[in-house]
Amino acid sequence: MRLAAGTTVTVALEKAGRVKVRYPAAVVSDDGAHVVVRAPWAGEKDRDFGFVRFEGGDVFTEHYWRDRWYSVKEVRDAEGALKGWYCDVARPARVGPEGIAVEDLDLDLWLSGDRSAVLRLDEDEFAASGLAERDPEAARAAWRALDELEDLARGGDFEDLLV
């Protein structure tokens, strides 16, 4: 099933078997494999990661795939300036009439808008999650996804992924 452009759906981000955050998003496009939605920053308050700050007014254009082990969120400030791309390693998105559900696997990558920084994040959280012991195949897929994202970010082909 494809989501219709212009409709509003719910995005549910899951972690460790529970919904971490749920928010409405407007469907931009859905080609059957790649879904794009747009939503304002869904956090209850601003969040400073040290390398970027997410805050009220920020707009996230989020890319989800039904067949890839990651999602990519382009982040722009309230004036439209590109902050960068936050990439979540996650199981392939589950898309249905109610929206999009994604299981976060802890590994993340940040690519700054000016491309000066490519940061692998939360590798310690991933190790502590125990996924490698519970589901070794999923853990290998997660590492491959992080490596793929980093290669795209460092190789200059990153935006081609989002078309």
UniProtKB/TrEMBL annotation:
Name the record gives this protein: DUF402 domain-containing protein
A GO MF label: hydrolase activity
Record-annotated DUF402 domain positions: 35-154
Originating organism: Streptomyces cinnamoneus (Streptoverticillium cinnamoneum)
InterPro entries noted in UniProt: DUF402, FomD-like_sf, Ntdp-like
UniProt entry keywords in alphabetical sequence: Hydrolase
Highest rank taxon of the organism: Bacteria
